[in-house]
Request: fold
Amino acid sequence: MTEVINDKKATTIKVIVTYPAAKRPFDEEILRTVTVGELKNAVLTAFGLVEGQSADGKTFIYTLYHQKTPLENLNETIGQIAGEKPSLELKLSQQVTQG
Reply:
């Protein structure tokens, strides 16, 4: 038996990211090779969020969490986090600091 390398299920994963202020979650089928940093950028764009300092001096930082663990290594791939699972559920958290 030969393994099917082009099997979509083997190369992609369903990623669902919830964010309390969003009306609905980010729900996409993405490549397992996508990094946490790339996913975070896509999620922030989808939710219309921007990291950094705002005009009023507040600094906004967003972190993705898998279960209760922050995903701090932006070079780690989604496939490394999910392992063999067909889907991955994450949460996006916002941290605001006064400037």
Remarks:
- Residues 43 and 98 are 24 Å apart (CA to CA).
- The chain has a mean pLDDT of 90.
